[in-house]
Amino acid sequence: MSSETISPTGIPIAPSPWTLSATIYMFAWYIPSSQPLPPFAYSPLEAKSAVLISSKPCGGLASVQVIRYSDSPVGPYDEMLVCPGTFEYEVVDNGQKVVRKNTRVSRIYVSQKVTCYNGRKTWNIPKHLARFSFTSPTPDTTKVEVFPHDTTGDILEATASAKPFFTALYKPISYMPSFPFSTRIGKYMGIDFNLVQPPLPEGKGKEGELPGTTKWCKLLPLEYTKKASLGWFDLRQMDPSGDSKASNTDDLDEDTLPEGAYSTFENWWPGLRRWNIGLKMEDATVDFGGEIYWE
Q1: What pairs with residue 278 in β-bridges?
Q2: 7, 16, 57: which is closest to 291 by C-alpha?
Q3: What is the pLDDT of residues 248-288, one digit of tens each?
Q4: Pick from 137, 141, 160, 246: most CB atoms within 10 A?
């Protein structure tokens, strides 16, 4: 491979655009503009970035997605992302500073280093590594647990935590037929799904997977399928004994944990109920590209 297809840290570069095949689990909720974001809305590295934390959160439609990519330009991988509503930012329009607001991915985990590096470098998506566990407690349910590399206090993010950052159980609604669904529906509902991502700080990841960036990035990801279905997400965060323990940090050394390493809420996010309705998108296609940059 030429130097143009390999990063300085030895990771293959996969340029935009990307088209990916996936199974997507997602649920959404509304965040009031008066509700401050909890510390765990950001990964510990990004939580130290003055650019990121200076953008005022404005609330609005929030979502969590857990995605299993079966095919992508960087191979298969798993992903969990948090979009906690909209954020204000400044742009220059016709020589004047203008305040706008858009949705943002504030925290996201992936299961391999190549997508981690490329997602950060190309689109300012603040990816970090994690180990993912998918199990089926019963034949019709799917349980996901996400064990991050950046919640142990190790700046190299070399190994996954023994404790999950996020746990959810998905249960489909019986006897409900599947239906086509696309995030293009947003433009007909007056919802702007464009992501506007701030520049990222550089991390010291052991795999060289945490590059920093210097420009803002705007892009519109698209997700669509002919086979979407409704289901329930159980968001009770449980410890190994089955007790509701909000991310199970009792046996960790709290003095070594980065701020915001884990949620402290019973149902993960403040104000969420235990059971939340959401979508499963099977045989879905995800398109990433068309990015715009500015200083």
Answers
A1: 27, 231
A2: 16
A3: 444 555 556 676 789 999 999 999 999 999 999 999 999 99
A4: 160
- Measured between alpha carbons, how far is 164 from 172 in angstroms, rounded to an integer? 23
pTM over 0.85? The answer is yes
The pLDDT of residue 142 is above 50:
yes
Give CA 280 to chain center in angstroms: 16
Buried b (16+ CB within 10 A) or exposed e, 56-66: ebebbbbbbbb
Q: Looking at residue 231, what is its pLDDT?
A: 98
Provide the mean pLDDT of the chain.
92
